[in-house]
Amino acid sequence: MPRRVGDGRPYRGRMPYFDAASAAPLHPVARQALLASLDEGWADPARLYREGRRARLLLDAAREAAAEAVGCRPDELVFTPSGTRAVHAGISGALAGRRRVGTGLVVSAVEHSSVLHAAERHAAAGGAVTEVPVGRSGAVDPEGFATALDAGTALACLQSANHEVGTEQPVAEVAEACRAAGVPLLVDAAQSLGWGPVEGDWSLLAASAHKWGGPAGVGLLAVRKGVRFAPQGPADERESGRAPGFENLPAIVAAAASLRAVRAEAAAESARLRGLVDRIRARVPELVPDVEVVGDPVARLPHLVTFSCLYVDGETLLHELDREGFSVSSGSSCTSSTLTPSHVLRAMGVLSEGNVRVSLPAGTPAEDVDRFLDVLPGVVAGVRERLGAPATPAAAPAAGSGSLVVDALGRRCPIPVIELAKVIGDVPVGGTVTVLADDAAARLDIPAWCEMRGQEYVGEEPSERGGVAYVVRRVA
Amino acid sequence: MPRRVGDGRPYRGRMPYFDAASAAPLHPVARQALLASLDEGWADPARLYREGRRARLLLDAAREAAAEAVGCRPDELVFTPSGTRAVHAGISGALAGRRRVGTGLVVSAVEHSSVLHAAERHAAAGGAVTEVPVGRSGAVDPEGFATALDAGTALACLQSANHEVGTEQPVAEVAEACRAAGVPLLVDAAQSLGWGPVEGDWSLLAASAHKWGGPAGVGLLAVRKGVRFAPQGPADERESGRAPGFENLPAIVAAAASLRAVRAEAAAESARLRGLVDRIRARVPELVPDVEVVGDPVARLPHLVTFSCLYVDGETLLHELDREGFSVSSGSSCTSSTLTPSHVLRAMGVLSEGNVRVSLPAGTPAEDVDRFLDVLPGVVAGVRERLGAPATPAAAPAAGSGSLVVDALGRRCPIPVIELAKVIGDVPVGGTVTVLADDAAARLDIPAWCEMRGQEYVGEEPSERGGVAYVVRRVA
């Protein structure tokens, strides 16, 4: 029997939580270890009296367990207050350790924001940052990554698997290229560490406990012996000087115990969830028209799938799914406070509107997935109806030439694409539709619509009336 | 009835823990709140689905409760992963926010290491750091502090009360001087916040939950509206950009709940503990010869007292007290890995050898203190006997002049002082003893011994045989 997720209540009446990639519900082992170590692990592990010695024993044991799961030596691993802090400390320390080599930092374009924000910070301080592009599946090309490394590269960063679309990166091959170039590779393993160790000869690794069912407040940073590393920020005697501040010990104990526990279940549970995700990947395009399932269908995280629905705004879609009891996330611009679509979807060049990420916590019952597939088509159809989306593909093509201009200035995603879809049938094959839009998502979604619809995306040009003019030629 | 500390077992057989200033045992309310919010508060508070909304409500409520206890607006307060991180973020953000004013940072000489390490970091980056000295009680002089402020001062830092000797600082007066000079004042309130809000017109405040019986993993940083503040490090959308990384929510909830709980008990409990500490302050010098009780006897934390015992090494003393069941800490060099005595005792100019800090957790029963007073004299006498310390003050003075040289090179604290005490009776009044020593503690402890014994400390001079020659003239 798979264990129950969430609050442990039985299935009837329980609400399916499908956002494990943001934060997984606390694993029962984490809860148990946390409780046990509240009594034994509250004292300062640096002290020599009995309470301190007990705390030190717990800390040492947690470090050994975590190191074993990571595949490193205990003295190579420190606990940080979060995955984000592990990434920040890892990048700044590795860059400073190789300052004499140069300031080059190479990252993939689809890294987690913690990596990209650290890169922005490095660039603002005068460092040289190179972003390696990804293909339409979200993966970097190892040869392309290798090309970005040069004599001035101090550090390279690559995630083990993408947090938004689930695509696994070719870490082992990139690590080999980095070794050949003499560049340390930092792997952000936040999304994958619960499923297994990261293959390949990496130099630094960061992860986050609440992604595998551990508690919040614990990240980990491994730095292989021999990697030049100079911790930044004020000195501190704790955690080898790499993570200042009093150790969050009960949470660290819970993090290590739950990592061990999820690893013991990983082989069986990943196979089971992989099957559920395959079902979603296959059924969603059959059940919902005008959908693009994104990310690599095979080389991917077992529990995560992302798709985008044309003519739907993400915020309403999430709201309606929440009303139906499903907690999912979205990379659509319409649901974020930044008004720009997810940088991951943008880098992949795929549709961002109506984007839904489903990430199943360990133990998700198959019935939850079936119910999601039952509910989704009606929810999407309802949102489309309210937005006045075109129900069918554009009308049969007419001969001749001509052009139309659609003014969607001031209109938010998905309206510009809806307006385009409505009029494409009004121009003859060979004719063009020009969409004027100032919503950032249009730059991504209009070309993605053309790809999905078999129309030709001509390009963008400045618009005299503000925003950007996106030109589409009807070819089908 | 005061609540029981530690594991909640009854008094018989329970081991008294007297190091609350390092980490207080978890308050029952913290434990209860932590457990409750493990179920409700594991999701991402930035998400809009129900689990996220629940987490957001908990976070907002915790922020309001903490802000009320601090005496600031909720939007002025963020949660950090530790008190150390709150101090680091507060200092770096405030310095950067006032970069145009200058690089001056003024700190007291007895701040917590987190403040002093941030100051070292600032100095290493080219900043100007001024340390304000303290008197023999450990307090700064407000006028002296004011003198250190100038037109290029970007930030001043002063603790609310000292973590090693308990002395309260004149925060309100210093804050007034800072206001007059237009300089923001950051108060490290780690040791006092559980006892009450910090008086005075401070600009920034940092604290640490595990000092008041909250869990590890939570600090707080308050930055008053109007204070120029520029968070350093990579950008992050959480906690107003001032504390990157996923919020440690169950621990935050527990921290806020326990702060409220300890405050409700603070008036009664501080009066009770103050009485117990007064008993220690009065009885220890009566029970143990050659002891110096340090720190202000009145303007002090209610629960903390520190004393130093001549001719005793701190490590053995702590070990023996631990064997008797008492967990205390020490600022003696002999117990730290740095081989230097506590910077606090050094700044105060008081004895560091045989140093013991007793800090009583809330709920400490009077019997524990009585038992400590029963046990201490025998423990100190035993350590002294093993070290061959002089049992009585130096023999009656002889007339005439003369001098002696004592070679204590390579000998660790407290041996140099013991050797001095052994031979002082062998020189006549007016004669000198020169102690050759290379242990860092000697620089503090030989003058302190002279002060306690009524002998004249002449000064130090370089020694041809290595180390330092400390010259003492017999006057009594």
UniProtKB/TrEMBL annotation, chains A, B:
Pfam families: Aminotran_5 (PF00266), TusA (PF01206). Residues 406-430 form the UPF0033 domain. Its cofactor is pyridoxal 5'-phosphate. Keywords: Aminotransferase, Transferase. It catalyses: (sulfur carrier)-H + L-cysteine = (sulfur carrier)-SH + L-alanine. It comes from the Bacteria. PROSITE patterns: UPF0033. One of its GO terms (molecular function) is transaminase activity. PANTHER family: CYSTEINE DESULFURASE, CYSTEINE DESULFURYLASE FAMILY MEMBER. Belongs to the class-V pyridoxal-phosphate-dependent aminotransferase family. NifS/IscS subfamily. This is Aminotransferase. It comes from Streptomyces gardneri.
